[in-house]
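dumping this here so i dont lose it
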C-alpha cells in the first residue's frame, strides 16, 4: 500500500511539474513582441502539448523522458521583447538556456533559481544592469556567455562567484574595475579553459593578484582575450599558465618591455599571440618557441633589430614600430614563414640575397615605408606561393624582374615611390598561361619605354597605376574589362586614347602630363602642309580672343585683390560662425574657373586651396571660397608636377584617389573648429570629399595616429559617415582626414532655419526616426567597437534626404589628437551645452560612453523643443526643460509645431522626454545606449500601433 501511494505521489508531482513548465513558457511568451520568423509565436500554443504536458513540439524546447523542460534554444531568431527570468524560475530541470542573437531586454534577476543550469548563453542581446548576483548557487554551470550586452559594474563581482565554469565570455559589455583573479575561487581558476573579457573598460594591471601579490595558477586555461580594454603597466610572463594556446591583449595601454618568456620554447604551448596596439618598448629577442604560429606585435614602440630566429612562426607582424637595422636578417627565419609584415619601420639594407632556399611557403611580403635599397632579386619571382608584395615607399632601384610580373600565384604587386627604372618586362606574358595579377601599382618611379601590348593578357586586372614615370608611345587597346582603376598620368604618352578607356575613366587618369595624348574627336593633329599657314580669319579670331581674354583676366585679378583685402580687413570665423556654416552644410557654388590665353592654346586653371602643397594658413579666413593660389594648367609637363613627400592611406576600396589628384582638386572651406578647417573638395571624376585639415600641433605622433585611425577607418555603420582615407605629410601642418561629402543639412540647421528656407518641417515621425538612427549608431559604437563618439552635437548630425536619415560625423577624433586638443574640444562642447556636469570637476575631462549618453540626451531635448543648445536665443535648453519638468509643466517645453500637428502624440513625447531626462542625469544613473535604443524602439512601436 505504501509503495502504491509513493508511486501516485511521484506521478502527481511529475504531471504537476510538466504543467507548471509549460505555464512558465506561456508566461515568458507574453513578453515577446516581435517574432520575424513566426517560429515561436505560432508553435508555442497551449493546445500543442503531448500527453504528459510536455511542450515537445514547441520550437526550441526539449524535454526529458519524465516530461520536464530541460532545454530552451532560441538562438538567432531576431526576437524582440522583455525576457522575463522570474517567469521561468519554476523550470527546475532546465539545463540549457540559449537565446543569443536576439533583441531581448531586461535583467538577469532570479537567474540563480535555475539550479540545474549547465549552459547559459544570452549573448548579443540588449540585457542591461549589474551582473547577476547569486550565481554562485549555480554550481553545475559550465558554459557562461554574456557577450554583446550592456551589463555594467565591477567585473570581479561575477568572477568571485563562479565555481567550475569552463567557458566564460563577457566581452563587449560595460564592465569596469580591475581583474583581480587572485580573489576568484580556486575551483574556477583551475577549471576555466576559455576566458574572454575584451571590449570593456577594465583598468589597472593584469591579474593584480587580489592585493596579496599572488597571481593565480591556471591549470586549464587555453584561450585568454583581454583586448580593447584599458589595462596598463607591465605584462606578466604568463609562466603561471601552462596550457595557454591563444593570448590576445591588443588595444590596451601596456608599456615597458616585451616579456621574452612568451616567445621561448620552455614557457608555454602558445600558438597565437597578439600584443598589437599597445606601448611596448625595447627589442624583439629571438623566438625559439616551436608552437607559436601567429605573432602580432604591430603598432607599438619596439626598437632594435629584427630577431634572428622566429621559431615556427607562420605569420609575423612587426609593422608600425621603430625597428631598425638590416632587413637581411630575415634570411635566417626558417621555412615556416607564410606572412611577413614589416611596414612603417626604419629598416635599411637590401631585400633578399640573390639565392636562397627559404620562404617556399611565403604568401605575403610587406615592407613598405622603410629605407630599403638595392634591387629586386630574381628569386623573388620563383617563390611558389607568393601572392602579395608591398615594397612601396622605399629606395629600391634597378629593373623589375620579368618573372615577377608573370607569376601564376601573384595577385598584388605594389612597388610605388621607389627608384625603379627600365621598361616593363612583359615579353613572356602572352605565353605564361593563367596570370593572377589583380592589382599593380608602379607609380612614382623612373620606368620608361612603351606600354607593352602584353598588358591586355592580364584578364583579372582590377587596378593598374603607372603614373609619374616616363612611359612613351600609345596606350594599348583591349585592356581587360575587369579594370576598375587605371592611372597613367604624368607620363609622356601619345597617340589616340582608346575609346573604351575614355568612356570608363576620368580625365585625372591621364592628366597632368601626356601632352601628345589625343582623347577627343576635336584633338586632331593638323597636317604638315597647313601647320604654319593659318587662314587670316583664324588669326584674326585668335587676336581678338587674346585681347578679350587679357581684359577678363585683369578684371578677375582686380576682383580677387578686392576680396582678399576685405578678408584681411577683419573677417574672422569663430565658434559661432563655424556653427552657422556647418549647420547649413550646403554645397557652395563651384570655384571660379579662369580661362587664360596662352599662345595658341587656351588652358583652364581652377581656383584651389591646394590642400597638400600649401598650408591652409595662407588664407586668414578659411571659409572663403576664393582660392589661396591658382594652379597651373592641367596640361603641364611632367617635370613641373612636384612629387609629394607624404603618404596617402586609403581604407575604402571604392575610393580611387592619389595625393596629387587631391592636391589639384578645387577646395572650398566650409567651416573651422578647434581641430582645424573642413573643406569640400571636388575630384576630376566629380567625386566630392570632405577633407578635414588638422591644425598644426593637433595630431598625435605618426605611429599612434596611424594605429588609431586604422581602427576608426574600419568602422562601418549605415548611420555613420565613415573615414575613407588620410594623408600624412612631412610637415606639421600637413595632416588631412578624408571622408565622403554628404550633401545634406545638419540637424541644427533644420531646427533653426527650416521656416526660413525651402525645407520640409520635421514631423513627429521624422524626429522619432532621427532619434532611433542616432541611438542605434551610438549603440553600435559603444557595444561593438567599445569607443565613444566623443563630439556628439546637432551640427555633427546630418539629415540625408529624402527619408532624413541621420548620419553622424566627426566621430572619435579625440583618439587622433593630443590631450591638449581634446581639452579644447571639450571646452567648445561645454560652451554649447553638450558636456556632462562631471566634466566641470575634472582636471582632465575625456570623452566617454557616459558623456555620449549625456550629449544624446541634449539632442533629444533639441528634437522635442525645436531649440538648439547653445543658441544665442536659447542658451540653456537643458536647464529650461529640467525646470519645467520639475514644476509638472513638461508639456510646455514641446515644439508647438509638432504639438499642433500631432495632438494624439503627447504620450509619445512624454515617453521620449523621460528618456532624455534619464540621459542627462548624474553619471551613475545614466542608462547605456543599448537600453536607450531598446526603449526608443518600444516607444516608436507603441506609437505606430
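and the seq i came up w/
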Amino acid at each position: 500500500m505504501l509503495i502504491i501511494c509513493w508511486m501516485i505521489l511521484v506521478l502527481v508531482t511529475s504531471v504537476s511539474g510538466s504543467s507548471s513548465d509549460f505555464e512558465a513558457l506561456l508566461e515568458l511568451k507574453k513578453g515577446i513582441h516581435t517574432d520575424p520568423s513566426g517560429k515561436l509565436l505560432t508553435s508555442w500554443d497551449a493546445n500543442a502539448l503531448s500527453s504528459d504536458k510536455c511542450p515537445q513540439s514547441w520550437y526550441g524546447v526539449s524535454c526529458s523522458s519524465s516530461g520536464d523542460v530541460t532545454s530552451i534554444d532560441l538562438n538567432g531568431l531576431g526576437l524582440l521583447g522583455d525576457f522575463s527570468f522570474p517567469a521561468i524560475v519554476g523550470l527546475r530541470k532546465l539545463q540549457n538556456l540559449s537565446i543569443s542573437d536576439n533583441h531581448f531586454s531586461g535583467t538577469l534577476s532570479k537567474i540563480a533559481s535555475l539550479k540545474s543550469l549547465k549552459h547559459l548563453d544570452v549573448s548579443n542581446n540588449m540585457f542591461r544592469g549589474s551582473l547577476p548576483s547569486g550565481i554562485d548557487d549555480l554550481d553545475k554551470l559550465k558554459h557562461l556567455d554574456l557577450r554583446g550586452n550592456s551589463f555594467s559594474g565591477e567585473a570581479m563581482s561575477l568572477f568571485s562567484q563562479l565555481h567550475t565554469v569552463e567557458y566564460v565570455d563577457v566581452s563587449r559589455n560595460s564592465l569596469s574595475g580591475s581583474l583581480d583573479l587572485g580573489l576568484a575561487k580556486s575551483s574556477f581558476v583551475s577549471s576555466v579553459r576559455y576566458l574572454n573579457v575584451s571590449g570593456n573598460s577594465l583598468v589597472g594591471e593584469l591579474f593584480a593578484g587580489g592585493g596579496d601579490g599572488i597571481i593565480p595558477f591556471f591549470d586549464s586555461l587555453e584561450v585568454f582575450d583581454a583586448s580593447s580594454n584599458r589595462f596598463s603597466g607591465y605584462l606578466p610572463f604568463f609562466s603561471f599558465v601552462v596550457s595557454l594556446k591563444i593570448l590576445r591583449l591588443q588595444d590596451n595601454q601596456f608599456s615597458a618591455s616585451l616579456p621574452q618568456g612568451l616567445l621561448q620554447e620552455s614557457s608555454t604551448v602558445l600558438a597565437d599571440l597578439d600584443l598589437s596596439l599597445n606601448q611596448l618598448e625595447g627589442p624583439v629577442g629571438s623566438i625559439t618557441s616551436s608552437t607559436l604560429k601567429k605573432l602580432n606585435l604591430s603598432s607599438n614602440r619596439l626598437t632594435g633589430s629584427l630577431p634572428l630566429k622566429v621559431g615556427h612562426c607562420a605569420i609575423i607582424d612587426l609593422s608600425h614600430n621603430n625597428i631598425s637595422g638590416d632587413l637581411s636578417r630575415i634570411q635566417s627565419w626558417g621555412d615556416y614563414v607564410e606572412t611577413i609584415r614589416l611596414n612603417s619601420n626604419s629598416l635599411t639594407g637590401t631585400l633578399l640575397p640573390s639565392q636562397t632556399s627559404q620562404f617556399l611557403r611565403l604568401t605575403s611580403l610587406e615592407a613598405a615605408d622603410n629605407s630599403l635599397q638595392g634591387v629586386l632579386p630574381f628569386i623573388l619571382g620563383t617563390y611558389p606561393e607568393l601572392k602579395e608584395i608591398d615594397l612601396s615607399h622605399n629606395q629600391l632601384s634597378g629593373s623589375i624582374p620579368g618573372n615577377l610580373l608573370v607569376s601564376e600565384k601573384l595577385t598584388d604587386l605594389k612597388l610605388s615611390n621607389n627608384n625603379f627604372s627600365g621598361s616593363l618586362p612583359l615579353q613572356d606574358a602572352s605565353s605564361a598561361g593563367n596570370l593572377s595579377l589583380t592589382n599593380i601599382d608602379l607609380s612614382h618611379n623612373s620606368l620608361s619605354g612603351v606600354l607593352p601590348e602584353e598588358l591586355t593578357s592580364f584578364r583579372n586586372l582590377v587596378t593598374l597605376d603607372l603614373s609619374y614615370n616616363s612611359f612613351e608611345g600609345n596606350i594599348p587597346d583591349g585592356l581587360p574589362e575587369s579594370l576598375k582603376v587605371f592611372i597613367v598620368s604624368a607620363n609622356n604618352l601619345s597617340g589616340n586614347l582608346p575609346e573604351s578607356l575614355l568612356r570608363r575613366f576620368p580625365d585625372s587618369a591621364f592628366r597632368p602630363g601626356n601632352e601628345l595624348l589625343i582623347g577627343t574627336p576635336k584633338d586632331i593633329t593638323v597636317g604638315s602642309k597647313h601647320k604654319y599657314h593659318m587662314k587670316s580669319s583664324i588669326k584674326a579670331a585668335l587676336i581678338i580672343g587674346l585681347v578679350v581674354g587679357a581684359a577678363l583676366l585683369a578684371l578677375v585679378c582686380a576682383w580677387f585683390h578686392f576680396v582678399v583685402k576685405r578678408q584681411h580687413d577683419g573677417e574672422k570665423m569663430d565658434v559661432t560662425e563655424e556653427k552657422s556654416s556647418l549647420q547649413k552644410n550646403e554645397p557652395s557654388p563651384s570655384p571660379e574657373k579662369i580661362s587664360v590665353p596662352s599662345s595658341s592654346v587656351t588652358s583652364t586653371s581652377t581656383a584651389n586651396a591646394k590642400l597638400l602643397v600649401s598650408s591652409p594658413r595662407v588664407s586668414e579666413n578659411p571659409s572663403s571660397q576664393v582660392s589661396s593660389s591658382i594652379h597651373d594648367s592641367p596640361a603641364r609637363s611632367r617635370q613641373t608636377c612636384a612629387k609629394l613627400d607624404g603618404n596617402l592611406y586609403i581604407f575604402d576600396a571604392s575610393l580611387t584617389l592619389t595625393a596629387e589628384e587631391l592636391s589639384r582638386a578645387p577646395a572650398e572651406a566650409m567651416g573651422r573648429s578647434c581641430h582645424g578647417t573642413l573643406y569640400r573638395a571636388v575630384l576630376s571624376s566629380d567625386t566630392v570629399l570632405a577633407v578635414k585639415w588638422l591644425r598644426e600641433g593637433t595630431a598625435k605622433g605618426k605611429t599612434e595616429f596611424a594605429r588609431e585611425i586604422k581602427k576608426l577607418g574600419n568602422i562601418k555603420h549605415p548611420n555613420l559617415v565613415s573615414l575613407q582615407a588620410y594623408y600624412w605629410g612631412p610637415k606639421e601642418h600637413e595632416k588631412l582626414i578624408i571622408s565622403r561629402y554628404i550633401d545634406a543639412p545638419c540637424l541644427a540647421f533644420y531646427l533653426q532655419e527650416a521656416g526660413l528656407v525651402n525645407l520640409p518641417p520635421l514631423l513627429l515621425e521624422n524626429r522619432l526616426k532621427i532619434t532611433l538612427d542616432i541611438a542605434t549608431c551610438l549603440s553600435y559604437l559603444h557595444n561593438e567597437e567599445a569607443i565613444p563618439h566623443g563630439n556628439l552635437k546637432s551640427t555633427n548630425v546630418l539629415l540625408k534626404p529624402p527619408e532624413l536619415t541621420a548620419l553622424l560625423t566627426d566621430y572619435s577624433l579625440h583618439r587622433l589628437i593630443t590631450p591638449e586638443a581634446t581639452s579644447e574640444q571639450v571646452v567648445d562642447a561645454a560652451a554649447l551645452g553638450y558636456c556632462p556636469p562631471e566634466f566641470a570637476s575634472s582636471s582632465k575631462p575625456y570623452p566617454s560612453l557616459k558623456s555620449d549618453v549625456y550629449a544624446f540626451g541634449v539632442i533629444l531635448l533639441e528634437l522635442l523643443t525645436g531649440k538648439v543648445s547653445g543658441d544665442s536665443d536659447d542658451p540653456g535648453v537643458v536647464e529650461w526643460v529640467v525646470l519645467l519638468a520639475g514644476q509638472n509643466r513638461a508639456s510646455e517645453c514641446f515644439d508647438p509645431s509638432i504639438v499642433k500637428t500631432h495632438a494624439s502624440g503627447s504620450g509619445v513625447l512624454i515617453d521620449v522626454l523621460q528618456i532624455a531626462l534619464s540621459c542627462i542625469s548624474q553619471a551613475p544613473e545614466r542608462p547605456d545606449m543599448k537600453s536607450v535604443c531598446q526603449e526608443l524602439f518600444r516607444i516608436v512601436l507603441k506609437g505606430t500601433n
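DSSP finds 18 helices and 49 strands in the chain.
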